[in-house]
Each structure stands twice: as C-alpha cells, then as structure tokens.
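Rotation project, supervised by the postdoc (A.L.). Task for the rotation student: set up a whole-complex structure prediction and record inputs and outputs verbatim in this book. Inputs entered:
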Amino acid sequence: MSSIKDVAKAANVSTATVSRVLANHPHVRQEVRERVLAAVAQLEYRPNLIARNLRSQQSNTLGLIVSDIRNPFFTAVSRAVEDTAYAHGYNVLLCNTDENPEKELLYLQLMGDEQVAGVIFSPTLQTLNRFHELNLSFPTVLIDRSLRSGDVDAVLLDNVSAGYTLAQHLINQGYRRIGAIFGEASTTGRERQRGFEDALRDAGISMQPEYLRFVRPRSEAGHSTTLDLLRLPQPPEAIFTSNSLLTAGALQAIRERRLQMPEQIGLVGFDDTAWASLVQPAITVLAQPTDEIGRSATELVLQRVADPQRPTRKIILQGELIVRESSVEQRVRA
Amino acid sequence: MSSIKDVAKAANVSTATVSRVLANHPHVRQEVRERVLAAVAQLEYRPNLIARNLRSQQSNTLGLIVSDIRNPFFTAVSRAVEDTAYAHGYNVLLCNTDENPEKELLYLQLMGDEQVAGVIFSPTLQTLNRFHELNLSFPTVLIDRSLRSGDVDAVLLDNVSAGYTLAQHLINQGYRRIGAIFGEASTTGRERQRGFEDALRDAGISMQPEYLRFVRPRSEAGHSTTLDLLRLPQPPEAIFTSNSLLTAGALQAIRERRLQMPEQIGLVGFDDTAWASLVQPAITVLAQPTDEIGRSATELVLQRVADPQRPTRKIILQGELIVRESSVEQRVRA
DNA sequence: AAATTCTTTGTAATCGATTACAGTAATTTC
DNA sequence: GAAATTACTGTAATCGATTACAAAGAATTT
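Outputs recorded:
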C-alpha cells in the first residue's frame, strides 16, 4: 500500500501539496496538480481513512443500534439507513441489543470509542429515561421511540393517530367488542393504546378493562394472550395487536381455535410484513413508512453532524392503513 | 475526552508506562500500575481506537457484504455474524449490493480503505469469476456461494445434497411430474439443480426440460414462472423452488389458480422463513442452518486474521428438511 | 522603485496511541 | 566487590494523513 509520502516523492512535491490536490484546495498550479494526479493514478494510491479520521477527529461511520435486525420493521429501516448513509459517503456499524439495557449502554460506549459521527438508536424505556445522564459525545437520532421532553432528535410514526385509524377501521367494519394487545417495553405501545382508546370513546364504545393487555412484544406472548382473550365469558369480536410479532402469535391462536376470519373474529396489526399479505385471509395492517423513517433519520443525524448547534427536531410520519380480508365484514355487524 | 497524555500526567509517569499498564505488559511496578489505573478510572479514560488502529495497522472491524439484508436468509445470517463478531471484540460494517457487481467492487474497495480486518461476502457469479484478479488486501470468507477452485475460504450449505433431499421428499410423497424454478444469478441455484436432477434420475423419473426454469431470484419471477408451468398441456404435480422469494411467488400463483395444496399441487422451497409456517397449508422447506453459517463464517475470518498463512478451508453444512402440509399427500399418488 | 498583496509551495506540528531503544537502579552471580 | 543480569521507566520515532505557519517569488499598487 502506497502512502501520501510515496505519491509526494513520485510527483516530486511535498506531502502538503499532495494533500491539497486531493482535497481540491485552490492555490495549486495546474501543472503540479496534474503531476500529482498522475502519480496518484500510477501508484493506485488510496488515502488511509484511519489516518484521516485520526487527524480530523471524526469518522465517516454512523452507528445503527436496534433491538433485533430480524424484526421486519428494523430490517426495512436498516436497509434505508444504509442506502442513505452510503449515498452520503458514510458507513454503517450495526448492533443488536435484544432490548437489553446493558447491551445498549455497552454499544453506546463502543460507538464513542469508535468515534462514530452519529448514531441512530431505538432504545428501551429504561435507557430512554436515563438518556440525558449519558452525556454522549456524538449526535443521536431516536427512531420508533422518543422522549416526551423535546430535546432529542427523533423520527417516529404518529402512533396515536395510527392506533386511532386502525381501531376506527375495526369499528367501521361493525366490530364492537375489541381486544387489544400492546407491547409493554416501549413508549410506542402506550401511544398506540391512546389512539385505540380515543377511537372507541369517539364511537361511544365503553372500554372493558379485561380486553386490554400489555405483554412482552413476542410471538409467544401474542399467542397465549389471544387464547386468554378468546376464553373470556364474552370473548372479543376482533383482536388489535400493536406489533407484528404479536400479530403472528394472535394469528396462530385464532387458527388453533379454528375461528373463521373475519366472520367470527377480526384481526389487525402493525407493519406490512412479507407474510401479512401471504396468509389467508391476508391481514389488515397499519404500514409504517419504513423507507422514509430510515432515510429521514439518517439525514437528520447527518445534518446534526454538520451543525451541532441546530435545534432538535422530531419528524412525525403518518402510517398507511392497508385493508385486507382479516377485518372486512361482508355484512356489517348489528 | 482525555488522552493517554492526560493519564500519564495525572499518574506522574510517561505515556509508555500507561500504555504498558493498559496492555498488561509485565515489568511495571505494582505501585505504579495502581497509580495509573487510578488515574484511568478518575479521568474515565478510554483509549482512542482510531489512533490504536493507525499505529497497529489493523482495525477491529469486519465487513459484511450481502445482496440484500431484507432477504430472510441474510437477515438471519447477519444476526449471527454480529453476535459472534462482537463476542470477539469486533464490529460489523454492513453493505447491501443488490447483486450489482459494480456495487460489489465499490464496497470491496471501501472495505480496503477502511482497513477492515476481514470481510464476509456473498458475491454474484460475475464477481466470483474475477475474484482472484481483485487482489484484496484483507482475508475474505464467502458465504452461500463459492468458487470451484478451492483457494478461498467459504461456508456453504451442501446444496447438492439439499436439493436431492427436497426432491426425494416430493418423490416419496408420490409426486412424479415436478416443476423446478432456480435462481440464475449464483452457483447456489446450479448446485441445487444438480441434487434435484440426481434425485429424479435415482428414482427413475425422466426429466422434462420444460419443467426446468432459471430466473431472477425475485418473487415476481416465481409468480409468473409458476403460472407458466401450470399452463403447460401437462402441468406439473408439484413445484420445487430454490429460494424463498421464488417460493412466495409460486404460492401466490397457486392461490390465484385456486389449486388445492397439497392435493392438486405440491410446493417446497428453501429457508425456514417466518411465513413458511404461518401460511396454510404451511410450506415444506429445506431449512439452512443460518446461525451456524454466520457463526462459522465469522470464526473462519477471524482465524485467518490471526494466521494469514493457514490453508484455505470450505465448511459445508447440512440443511434440515422440515416437512409441513404443502407437500404431504394423505393418499400416496398412483 | 518600493511597498503591498497574492500565489504557490514546503516545513514541521499535530491527532493518540504503540514500541524500539536506551538508560538507571536493583539484584544476582562469581 | 566487580561484573553481569534483570527490572523498571522514559525518550522519541512511528503509523498516514491534515494544516498552521513561513517563505519565496510573482503580480499589483502607489
């Protein structure tokens, strides 16, 4: 591997001049510039990014910290983050935390050690609450979750509105007794619950507390909780889930009980996963704009890298209701 | 951020001594060692990894280059790669190439610039063919695809055997006229085809060339090709797909034609995706050991980092046949 | 023609670690 | 008790870039 010294020697100039040519500085004679460029080409010189980063005290790497890349939502977001980052000349370092606060702290520290330019992060409630004590040395943009207090950049779905839309859809289809299963780990579940309850209230439907459940956002929990709900003396006519893993679990439970969807039971959920349209009946979902979330988060973090003084911003995106067969009643209920 | 100089000053020693304490070198007096450690703790000193990498001429980062992280196979593998890498103190830089050879070269060059310790890579046939001209400056382990010539490390499924097992399963279930759709971009499809054909031959079934298709490994291609096959004067009794996207497309096509699975048409594919067990009937698949693939590939690349002279190795893993309803005939066919 | 400004280039410091080498003090060997 | 060895620590070079500063020459102004 040739270094800037080799190029300087070959072009018969100093390393400073080589650096200036490469950085496109003015004040270099045309003839010299060409000589340097020729030497660069001849030696196939490529700048050492590590040395550059050390000197300039900042790297061209972004950190992406998610709970689990296998969650289809994060898979899709991460793809968008990477595309956007690479388009701007940045790399992406990926970490999975499994919603484990210790891992979260560990990886945040690692990001500091690696001197990343910025981080896109989807934290647990626990880490969120201590977020300001962390005193991170790099700009951070939160995705999917956020602090009430407005002093962190964030890109989020309008969860309240999304929950409202999805619940309202069920109500419009004639469902009245609606069971709902929310994830307990994040702020996201709470907000979707708010929208859900608002929709019921606006429709004049009284909430039955035993229809509301908060669980670990896992397929198993979705499964067992749905079975629970279906076992109630007066079981719900539809199930609202706040997360695609919960939806998968609920679907399994409904299958086991051999209930007809959507006639005997309706089902709706979040995220337009690959399987949501492949199962029969296909599942009605509130799709998150994953591309947009990833892209916006990356642009936000890069803007803050460029201008650390810029006031913090939250970008709130709207979801899209995709109506499929799992919630559509041919004859509207009584 | 405090540097090693600050620690040296605080502990009243030279930077060399601090470095020695931190690297656990012998020949440091116990009393001095403790003084340094105290200073480190007091200043919350963390070594600058960039400086360390520059000096030691190697980084603690691995590159992972896949065609698309949204492909469930790569999602699962990447999760395993990251877990293993972080357990060994390495980070993971992720890149998506979309099977675009230009992007592949670009990212390989980037990896060189970033001085990654090693790369795990799933190349297109095109890049594979020029692989040795590339003269990469870092160790590379191929996954999912490989060169015939044995001089690159690789971790692969035993694709021939996997194709054989899956085809044999269909034959055992009584299917005789079997259509097969393979991806055209990689060596993987070819090998699975070999196994497929061997199984038919061993069972004394003659191959009909119009049942064999090679297409872009996309869901749309799976869909249209399956419709094609079903339109033949004598349509196949079962469809064999070599990739989960093709399987999804085939499933869609079968649904549109309202054929009963497995009675009127059988379906099998590769990779145990989330949806394969959620759809009805659930799909029989040959599951790849994704965790094992990711873990082995990472360990292989780290071993080569440690010892560049080590002879190259190929790790061939066996898949697992998971029989579900999409291919199980209650009454064996005539 | 002297003073001023601008252009072009090089020298050397710097980023923050690691480590070869050297030097001093302590210990062991004969 | 002198020589040899070992233990400990510091000085300074090094990795490969960037950049402040200086300096020399050319161009412009007065």
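Student's summary: Residues 159-289+321-327 of chain A form a domain with the Rossmann fold fold (CATH 3.40.50.2300).
Supervisor addendum: Chain A touches chain B at residues 1, 46-51, 53-54, 59, 61, 68-70, 72, 75-76, 78-79, 82-83, 86, 91-96, 109-110, 112-115, 137, 248, 251-252, 255, 273-275, 278-280 (CB under 8 Å).
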